[in-house]
Design goal:
Length: 420
Amino acid sequence: MQCPRCGSKSFTIRTGKAASGAKRFTCNNCDKYFNENTGMGLNNKHDGRDKQTTRQYEENGNDARVTQVTNHQIKTLDEMIKVCEIDTTIWIVDRWICNKWEVGMRVGKDGVRVQPLWQVKVWLKRDVEKVKLDDIKSRIISEIKKHSLTVPKLKIKEYKKPCLFVVDIPDLHLDKLAWGKETGKNWDTKISSAAFLKTVDDLISKSSVYDVERILFVVGNDLFNADNTDNTTTHGTKQIVDGRWKKAFPLARKLMIKAIDRFALIAPVDVLVVTGNHDEQRTFYLGDALECWYHNNANVNVDNTPKKRKYYDYGNTLIGYTHGKDEKVDRLPMILANEAKDKFAKTDHHEWHLGDKHHKKDIKFTPTEEVDGIIIRFLSSLTALDEWHYSKGYLAKQAGQGFIYDKRDGWICQFNSYLN
């Protein structure tokens, strides 16, 4: 092979392929771009249906042009892309035109057949942003593969009274921005990150007197303050946030990994991902990232199923989780009994754990036909007040909480970790 412009046989192979799928080269003599088809003129091709095509392709940097003559009728952009073999993962169609004419063809000695032909000219632009995203994706996958070592299952000793340790730190609002002179306390990503890890360590310390054989760690429940690039909640309410979402998301991922890794040193960890009303999309993406991170770790199980309400059973206890914004409290017992029928029938102790209310209280429901004492727990929030919540008078102590459950007797105790 040689350069079609200067004839030099010295050239360098470039990354990627031309729109036609041909390999691309750079001439070391004249610095011009070309590919395997450049300079070959119009090449006849047949597709098995006797639809003849001729093609010419030129490429220069991030621009390319395809000229195609075919007897395949072209009416739409999709038909043109198919006939011209445009690789849409690399190229964007800038513009295109299609002309039609007819030619006479001799058939036998005296016969003539009229053949319609179409000429298509296509101008292409390289999808530079997509190429960049693909490169970022490749680097992320490479990073995950490097970390994704197979972790063997922990050997947990048998306890006489084994128990479950539940860690609830809802409504963190990691990327919220609050000004202390306006609301009483400052809050930003740096403060919230430190507060979260301090709470995790404190709850672990308080649980150390119990024989923990398994840990339930709930992720989400308005972990983020905003859900999109416009810095609004899932339903469009504008929020004041600290920094860019591209800063908050990886920070949240790293925080959750730090917490899970600390829990996994004690016992196997079940991670339950529960979306909130502020961050429904980002929480789901975070759960997916955690699933990828721990998919080879036998000590960590991530439940990122898309349902908003999740159910977790341990021994004789069943706990329902939801953020709490949409469901009416007096309907929760029936929801638990109907949506988790099998688990409900096998257990005697039933609870709901809710976030969203930003204050803590316990409500005990009177028995019904389906339940016999279901406890609804409104969980405390670790976040500081923003200006809106302060002005409405939503005052509460900042806290995360841990619970201990016995396999047979259910709830044993609750301990809180307060921020000073």
